[in-house]
Amino acid sequence: MNEPAESGIDIVIPNWNGRRLLETCLASLEKQTVADFKVTVVDNGSTDGSAAYITDHFPAIDLLQFPANQGFSVAVNRGIKNGCLPLVLLLNNDTELDEHCLEVLLESSAKESAYDMFALKMLAFHQRSVLDGAGDGVLRGGVGYRLGTMEKDSPAYGLKKEVFGACAGAALYRRSLFDRVGLFDEDFFAYLEDVDFNMRAVRYGSRCLYLPEAIVYHIGSASSGSKINNFTVKLSTRNNIFVLVKNYTPKTMLRFLLPIIIYQFFWFIFVIKKKQLPAYLAGIFSSLRLIGRMAKKGGVLKNKSVLSEPAIREKIIASERDVVSSIMCRREQQMKTNKVFQIYLRLLC
Asked: For strand 62-66 and strand 37-44, is the pairing parallel, antiparallel, or unpaired?
């Protein structure tokens, strides 16, 4: 990495065939109330003229290019290494920032020195009274969940709150955190790499704060085309296994075995319902090729752990309670029953 500067935010935006999205995203950065930031777009082999568009319309932006799609993790890691400012904001290309967003991030990061990560308030781009995420929680099954997603915005989400982690689609990190925790795992390619990062950060004693005044509007799944497709199911299935093998000790795996089985059962039912069984099986088989490497990485992580395994388990369980409560709130707003989740909370949380 380059020699760190004294202040400012390096903004890293991965892009893959997102030319139609870039104007809104990049224009919102030009409207910010502060100027202490630098923008890097990492283009992942786009074929839609994204690179030429950036060069022609936003020449001040630092454009890095790969000849082919290397995945989210490789792209953002390249962007992080390219910068030198003490704060790093990862930002999806399908976002629009409120004009005060960066100002809030700079002020909050200066005041909240106990935190290494900051989760932004993500609102749905096309329905701005609805949340897209208010920090990330985690399930014992080894997956993440954006707290508040698809819920109506409310005063409860207008309060600062410590959360398990941040969604890498709109997250602020202290650069020093990467020195301790490492960068995003490039074997994940895409999906759940931020869950893995959040778990590593928690293991090393780092904390994340949700900042409700740092607002970003998010479209979601703009590059992959839809939330559920062959690509997302295969990688989500594979990377869920990676998260478990890499971040759980055998004792934690045993303690969390029933929730893991429950999650896998409902994920399998969901996959069948969406007619994605071939992609699911491809994800399972794909995980087997790298499972040994993940176990080896996990061994290194656990040897350097700051928190004890019981403390880590407590944080995961507490976060899962937040996740289930958020899901129940969303279902109540949709006039759906919560009996299954109520039983789950009583028996397993």
From this structure: parallel
